[in-house]
């Protein structure tokens, strides 16, 4: 049975009402603390396998960026821990908590000559605030530079539940 113009309009309205709205994603809820897992690639495999069956490896430098996205309230970074592919702690970047004013950021750096992290390295970043704030953006920027060329990519952090103090 064909659908006429008169019967099609109510059907279309019902269908559009039923489908999820196509608009900007809702911001995550404001919160007072969190722990974020950030993937880090301090080395990446590339090219062909060598005589031993291993791929070539490029060492990358990594900048971890912690950004307070709240326009009115400070946050405090309580820990920044760098782990290798096996989950072993390689470096604790903070001796004491560090405050971030509204709309500010803090960077932490892993040199490209650091070979212990591996392709599965990670940061665990913990933070807190005095009142609920916008969740921070925490991501890593990876760079491989040679001669006059460079390659770069980012990895976005993922909030996790943590038992860390």
Q: What level of helicity do the residues show?
A: under 10%
Q: Beta-strand level of the residues, as a percent range?
A: over 45%
Please give the domain count. Answer: 1
Supply the CATH class.
Mainly Beta
The main β sheet shows up as: 6 strands, antiparallel
Instruction: List unreliable stretches of 5+ residues.
Output: none
Q: How many separate helices?
A: 1
CATH topology: Hypothetical Protein Tm1070, Chain: A
Mean pLDDT: 87
What structural category characterises the helix and strand content? Answer: mainly beta
Named CATH architecture: Sandwich
Sketch the topology as an H/E string, one letter per element: HEEEEEEEEEEEE
| Number of distinct beta strands | 12
Characterise this structure.
The mean pLDDT is 87. Helix content is 8%, strand content 52%. It is built from 1 helix and 12 strands; from the N terminus they run αββββββββββββ. It has one domain (35-160): Hypothetical Protein Tm1070, Chain: A (Sandwich), CATH 2.60.290. It is mainly beta. The protein is elongated. A hairpin with a 2-residue loop joins β10 and β11. The longest helix has 14 residues, at 5-18.
In short:
This protein is mainly beta.
Main attributes of the structure:
165 residues, elongated, 6-stranded antiparallel β-sheet, 4-stranded antiparallel β-sheet, mainly beta, Hypothetical Protein Tm1070, Chain: A
């Amino acid at each position: 049975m064909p659908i006429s113009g008169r019967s099609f309009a109510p059907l279309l309205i019902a269908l559009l009402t039923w489908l999820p709205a196509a608009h900007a994603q809702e911001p995550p809820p404001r919160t007072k603390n969190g722990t974020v897992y950030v993937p880090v690639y301090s080395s990446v495999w590339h090219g062909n396998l060598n005589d031993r069956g291993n791929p070539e490896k490029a060492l990358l430098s990594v900048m971890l960026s912690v950004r307070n996205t709240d326009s009115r309230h400070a946050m405090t970074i309580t820990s920044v821990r760098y782990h290798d592919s096996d989950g072993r702690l390689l470096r604790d970047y903070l001796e004491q908590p560090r405050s971030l004013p509204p709309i500010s950021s803090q960077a932490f750096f892993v040199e490209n000559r650091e070979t212990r992290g591996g392709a599965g390295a990670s940061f665990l970043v913990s933070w807190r605030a005095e009142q609920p704030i916008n969740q921070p953006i925490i991501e890593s920027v990876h760079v491989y530079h040679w001669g006059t060329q460079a390659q770069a990519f980012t990895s976005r952090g993922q909030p996790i539940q943590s038992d860390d103090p």
